[in-house]
Amino acid sequence: MTLSGRLPPDPHTNRPGRASSHWLVLAVLALAQVMVVLDATVVNIALPSAQADLDFDDSQRQWLITGYALSFGSLLLIGGRLADLFGRKQAFVAGVIGFAIASVAGGAAGSFEVLVAARVGQGVFAALLAPASLALLTTTFTEADERARAFGVFGAISGAGGAIGLLLGGALTQYLDWRWCMYINVVIAAFALIGGLALLKSSTPTERPRLDLVGVSTATAGMFALVFGLANAHTDAWSAPSTWGPVAGGAALLTSFVVWQSKVARPLLPLRILLHRNRGGSFLAVFVLCAGMFAIFLFMTFYLQQNLGFGPVRTGLAFLPMILALMISATLGTTLLLPKVGPRLLVMAGMLVAAAGTAFMSLVNETSSYAADVLPGLIVAGLGLGLALSAGMNVGTAGVEEEDSGAASAAIQAVQQLGGSIGTALFSTIAASAFSDALGQGAIPSTAAISGYAIAFAWAAGLFAIGGTIAGLVLRSGIPDELTSAHPSVPA
After folding, report:
1. Are 260 and 174 part of one and the same domain?
2. Are 387 and 58 in contact (CB under 8 A)?
3. Residue 467 to residue 1: CA distance in whole angstroms
4. Which residues of 111-138 are buried (b: 16+ CB within 10 A; e: fewer)?
5. 3-state class of 9 per DSSP?
6. The whole model's pTM is what?
7. Is residue 351 a part of any domain in this protein?
8. For 452-462, what is each residue's pLDDT tens digit?
9. Domain residue limits at 459
10. Burial class (CB in 10 A: 0-12, 13-18, 19+), 314
């Protein structure tokens, strides 16, 4: 306190009142995160309407989802490094503006090709915006208690954003038009931009080393090829060259990227970020959680609409209990449990709880009802996902040096996108195979579809259980020092 009784200026915002301004910063960053995360699913429910309007076929439909994931996931590492090199506020503002422009183009699209290009553009600017947001969060909330609360909120939004997208997409499609699933981002971006300009302080890094162009090329091309090949698995066989060729090429490129990062003086992704035991375990947990979570959103949406006859809005509302459970467990987990029990027990327990909820969903059949056979599984899965995801994101970025905060933030979000993309492709292939097998055994199409969803849920439950067990072995027991001590405040 100063002699006048006022709080000293906040070094992050140049405004009085450190605590209050920090929570306003969190609100702005959370708003931007909502926009980025919900766009991974907001178009799902709008796809039938967009397909009828723009006249494209079922085989093209997936590119409206994977186009966003491809550009987002493959460019995240360079987006994070650009935020480190040119300033996080600058990257945040550029990302918000670019995302809004791409959204306008998508809403006004008169053809399938323009809409796909707009979705790719959204992914490009999301790759700049998302790591800047998480880096700003990491460098703003440096005290242990504040950091726990902030990451509880941020983790809850990251986990619930996909379900929020389904709810919002359903309401916009049913009451306005599918194009508002694009236009709504302009409204969100306007508030995020005003808040960012007002609250975030511009900073110019004192040193701007040359960008690692070899790392950029191998990482971007490798992630693009991997996700592209896995996306093809949904329509082509795993043995098809269009599937295994890009997957093998992507794996080779990513291996080359890791080797190069160990040798180059100024790496795009310093390996010290990944080789930290707790951080590595957290990255693994986030990858698995997002892979399974996207499968829940995708197949439960199909089941509710096609088998239970839910409309777009009712489908979105059906996910609301899961959203609430996830947000409550994420917030309480990071504020109350993580500082007391540490990440190992929390992540492992959360993933095993998510496995139990998803396994319950795998029991759905043609006579199942929402209240008895879907709702309990959604709530239990939401509780587990919230516990594990918020803890994983917190520990995955805790204790990172200031110059690496953008790279670490980009890395964990790249893991999220890759997990979601790989999970969508993998479980879509599993569901399609089960669907074909059921048809071959004489099942009617609706029953065969349910068989596909049930098998996908069962595999997702198994993935959660295995991932939770491995994360429990990798993560250290006890409470990490970086979660109990304050770190020096650094400029945003």
Report:
1. no
2. no
3. 47
4. ebeebbbbbbbbbbbbbbbbbbbbbbbb
5. strand
6. 0.76
7. yes
8. 999 999 999 99
9. 18-201+268-483
10. middle
